[in-house]
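Checklist before submission:
- one chain only
- standard amino acids only
- sequence pasted in full

Submission:
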Amino acid sequence: MNNLAIIKENLLKKEENLSPYATKSKDAIRLIPKKEDIRPSFFHDIDTIIHSTSYNRYIDKTQVFSYLENDHISKRMIHVQLVSKIARTIGRCLELNEDLIEAIALGHDIGHTPLGHVGEKILNDISQRELQIPFMHNLQSVRTLTVLNNTNLTIQVLDGIMCHNGEILDNTYSPQKKTKEDFLHDYEESCKNKNYAKKIRPMTLEGCVVRISDIIAYIGRDVEDAIRLKKLKRNSIPKEIEEVLGNNNSKIINTIILDIVENSYGKEKIILSEKVFKAMNELKKFNYREIYEKANTEEDLKYYEEGMNKLFYYLLDDLNNNKKDSIINKVFIYNMNEEYITKSDNKKIVIDFIAGMTDDYFMNLLKTVN
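Returned file contents:
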């Protein structure tokens, strides 16, 4: 046995000490079977994700607040890193596969639009109107990594990304066993039916950890950003929430992580105590009411909606009329393979292009069509 083979074996041996409920690298399934190199499968997926072109664009995508001259306000990149760190902390305590957790966490928002959830809502309206199908960033993340970036990630990673929905808070997260065919069925049905997409659950316990970590990562951090921008005062956090979770991001994260670890250790599910679950739910409602619904002015929302619609039809016209000098041809289509170009509806191509834009790219491109 050569040195590389010994190293590979040693890397895999570390997984022998994981929980019986952890997902092992030997169980990894790829869309297209391939021979693995020295890296365990999920560790390899981490590298694939961070070297993808779409990963670079996290750095200039909105988390909650857009276009503010404050370098301390979270961007999508920070959120993704926080999800990864929180999820790996929980995973390490529960003896789960940290490589799988990190891969899911780093890729989970890669399909997010410019302008955060405002941009996603507008693009969903366009997709529903023009194609009669929903646009959801978790599904777009899977599409981005499989179709647009042409990666060959494991099913376990793709499924965790698809099922990460951080808008839905539960007190118990149980994995749902799936085959490759089950994953593909869930993905195809979710792309057609938003209600179906809301019901899907991760196939691994690691995917469940990322799903709850997505909420943990933003629920306190968004409060800190709002306070920093003087849009919220710390003493405005309801006392019943503060008494359980604390009133700053550090305490909130620590309280929730310890609660999960205490209640989930040695179990094939992620469990929140009733007290912490209720407080998280109330804080989430508080955030929507006091932060998210007030993050943009009516004028901003109108400008974004009119602008994204205008840009959609402008780029669609360029595609339909085969304008070779159009930005969508020179920047986007140019990098796509022949199968994507021939099999994709022009409307879907434009949606893919817009969804992948950073905030600044979108706003600058919009100026050229106004």
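Reviewer check: The first helix runs from residue 3 to 13.
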